[in-house]
Amino acid sequence: MAWKAFGALVAALAVLASALPVDAQGPIRLGASLSLTGTYAKLGNYQHEGYKLCLKQVNDKGGLLGRKVELVVYDDQSTPATGVRLYEKLITEDKVDAVIGPYSSPITEAVANVTEKYQKVMVTPLAATTSIFKKGRKYIFMVISPAEVYLEGLIDQAAKRGLKTVAIVNEDTLFSKAAASGAAELARKKGMQVVFQEAYPKGNTDFSGLLTKLRAANPDVVAAATYFDDAVALTRQMRELNVNPRMFGVTVGGDLPEFYDLLKQNAEYIYGATQWEPTLPYPGNQEFFEAYRKEFGREPVYHSAAGYAGCLIWTEAVKKAGSLDSDRVREQLLKLETRTAFGDYKVDQDGFQVAHKMVTFQWQDGKKVTVWPEELAHAKARFPTPPWNQR
Amino acid sequence: MTITPTMLGQVVVSGVLAGSLYAMVALGLALIFGVMRVINIAHGPLLMLGAYTTFFLWAGLGLNPFLTVPLAMIVLFVIGALLQRTLVFRVVDAPELSSLLLTFGISIAIVNLAQLAFTSDLRAVEYITGAWVLGGLAFSKSRVIAFLFAAGVTALAFLVLQRTRLGKAIRATSQSREVAMVCGIDVGRIHLLTFGLASALAAAGGSLLAVIVAIQPEMGQVWTFKSFLVIVLGGAGNYPGALLGGLLLGLVEQLAALVLTTQLSEVVAYVLLVAVLLVRPTGLLGGRQT
Amino acid sequence: MTRKLLPALVVAAVALALYPAYGTGYGIRAMLQIFMWVALAGSWNLISGLTGYVSFGHVAFFGTGAYTGAILIATHGWAWPPAALAGGVAAGLLALVIGWPCLRLKGPYFAIAMLGLNEVLRALVSYFEGLTGGGNGLSLPTLYASVQIYYAMGALAAAVVAATSLIVTSRFGLRLMTIREDEVAAEAMGIDTFRHKLLAFLLSAIGPGIAGALTARDQGYIEPLSVFPLAITVTMIVMALFGGKGTVWGPVLGAVVLFVAQEIVWARYPYVHPLLFGAIIVAVVLAMPRGVLGLLQVMYRLPRTI
């Protein structure tokens, strides 16, 4: 009977797997599932390249604990369910020595349940949602600044210029919601009034109803917690409906070169938030930028840099721990304070990032110019934003 | 938030501008349904192909995007006719299950082929942006021009349907295939031309959309559903009903986004569909129930 | 025929019941997924394979079950088994609400009404964020119960197959198939087609509802995008069609073969695999409407009731 044969086969395989000797001299295998296809494909691929560059450099310098490091990557198709299964596969079937984070907050949120179950340390370079790290999980570590502070630069500058009213719109997903609520709270704290706030579904293309209401509220500032597609659509339709705030800023997506390619002069004056810029004076940043361009033939974005830094931070902690043991690496990651090409790293007892800084830029003559915070700014922001027909 | 007359006016403007596209695209779906009793699930993806045709003609050859509308219609007429000739004709007389599933499969294949060929990167035709402002109402330049084109194409389609021999043959076939055959109409040829014409209407929609919104391979799927909604509102088999249905859907969506939220506007459109099916399945203007 | 299969079924059931004792974490999760797809494809088959009414929105029931289960577990402290059953009940109620207006009409209306349903539910779930967490999703308290859920999902898959087997050989099933072949004739024969269709639809919604709730429990985190994707509907349709719609074992065959192929082969060619799904649908509709099992039935003269 086929089923009997199947059962025997499975049993035989199980015996075989447990009998295989573990080769201590083989490479260290670092596992991850990344969004190589699907909604997050573009950004997931940048992260993948960051990991690859980091490990290449580590291996060129003689590896980690005297062993080479090898990356085992699967594609989670941008879905949490697949991610969960793949981390389970990495840990229980491939028996990787360590794991590192996937792309995006929702996938990290789902996957963290698996890595916690097997007590595997996971540095998650591209999860920016605070709640993931505030559930009593022990083994995950945040690298980038939380979503809540993405719009801080925009709101802070607006408040300093004496602007009074702000409208906040956001895509209704984990990350964008957090960015929007962070912005709203900050605005109120700085004495500004939130005159309009509304969420729109992911994949939305028609913003006219929302913008009609927004225009009627006549805000000084429009703060939009976006991904890429909606940032582009929102900008185009603001122009079509002649919505003219004195400052307009977006979150993710505004920093990609494609944002300007698609919008051309309509992108001028728009503020964006980014975790990282190649021009920031961090140690090794210039070298990272050059090496990345040489390796992959394109310029890195912050997702690349975050992936790169997350991987470096993990190797740093492993080196200090002198072992791959989860608890010892965890101890080091909690203690570690460092500055990489990506900026500062330091976490609290929950693994929540407390040192890394966001920067705010503005599109000026086709270039992203860092305008906030003041100590990192390259130029002054162009203020106020002129009406659409005068750009 | 209080709703001012200006806001309402803006909603009417946006609704009518969007509704004209709904009406034109839905007319295509209505034709196929009327003539062949086939719901073409791939209608929206064909619209997406029209949008890409315009994008590539604009980006590659530097053509004026509005001038590419007839070109995109021709390209998609051919693609549509080919689909009918090779695949769809086999299921015209089969139970609905077959034609629904077949066009569903075609739709998935088209979308994923587009993803392979064009990648899922956003593309945009940056041509005419900005708005004319009249009495506090903003008239988006690109949408107004798209509206004029849609009105023109739709009028042309009706002219063909009402005045030409082909149009009469199409209407005759949709009323009764047997009688049409007896009258010497080559029904197979009519099916082919109808599918081509319907795909061309979808292409015109995609072509005009390319100037208004950013395009990507998955942009089309929602249009299959919206087009069907328009048909149900207007009454299946009632071609002028598609015009009314289109404008109505445009207005309802915009109004819902204004009074409720953007998220709920989809829900309102759906509730409208279910309500019409429940109360007046022949559509608001009445049509033939199938 | 089912009698003859019985020994094989018993062996299979025993092997699967023992599997968690020697399977890896991943193996258990993979098997769990196969059970889930068997339940989903089998449920879709109940309405679409038997009555010919195509449901393009069956993921709506999966998502409804997932949210019902997750809310009951996360905010009302229910244990997961009753929460999973509640997920099935909620999905059944939804089927009645949608089926009532749409099944009175003929096929296309129903198909299209289902086509938009998942988007609408997604919007509703996002809107009522007080209850559902909206776009933030819902996180369930941590619980490592993969093995228990493996058994629950396995039982669900078995129940769906058993129900299909009973229905296909019953008068009820014969009436459903009469509706599929010729609805007008069925009505003329005195069959209350509306009630039959509605009952079939109700039955077909319960399985996905329970499967959704179990999946939510197993993953520990759900969000509107992850439980209402069109891709789940597409996959269950492809599996049922490929294996053989309207048959008892077709959806099982389709689920097993396509899931294994997806996991082993297609994972390496990520872009090609959805394209292949489209091609499979087209090919099956045109060339082998009763799927692989239909071909086997013809080749080996197997009865049509397996």
**Secondary structure: number of strands of chain B:** 2
- SSE pattern of chain C: HHHHHHEHHHHEHHHHH
What proportion of the residues of chain B form beta strands (DSSP E)?
under 5%
Q: Trace the largest sheet of chain C across and list its strands.
A: 1-2
How much helix is in the residues of chain B? over 70%
Largest chain-chain contact? B-C, 45 and 45 residues
DSSP strand (E) fraction of chain C? under 5%
Total helix count of chain B?
A: 11
Outline the low-pLDDT stretches of chain C: none
Written description of the protein model:
The complex is a heterotrimer of chains A (391), B (290) and C (306). By secondary structure, chain A is an alpha/beta fold. Chain A has helices spanning 2-19, 41-60, 80-92, 105-117, 130-133, 152-160, 174-189, 208-217, 228-240, 257-263, 285-296, 302-321, 326-335, and strands spanning 28-34, 69-75, 98-100, 122-124, 140-142, 165-171, 193-200, 221-225, 247-250, 271-274, 338-340, 343-345, 359-364, 367-372. Chain B is mostly helical and 290 residues long. Chain B contains eleven helices and two strands, in the order ααααββααααααα. Helices cover 73% and strands 3% of the residues of chain B. In chain B, helix 1 packs across helix 6 (165-175) and helix 1 (5-36) runs antiparallel to helix 10. Chain C is mainly α and 306 residues long. Chain C is 78% helix and 1% strand. Chain C has helices at 2-22, 25-51, 59-76, 80-102, 107-127, 129-132, 146-168, 171-181, 183-188, 193-219, 224-227, 230-243, 250-264, 272-287, 291-299, and strands at residues 138-139, 221-222. Chain C has a two-stranded antiparallel ribbon. Chain C starts with a helix and ends in a 7-residue tail after the last helix. The mean pLDDT of chain C is 91. Classes of the chains: A alpha/beta (391), B mainly alpha (290), C mainly alpha (306). The interface between B and C is large, with 45 and 45 residues.
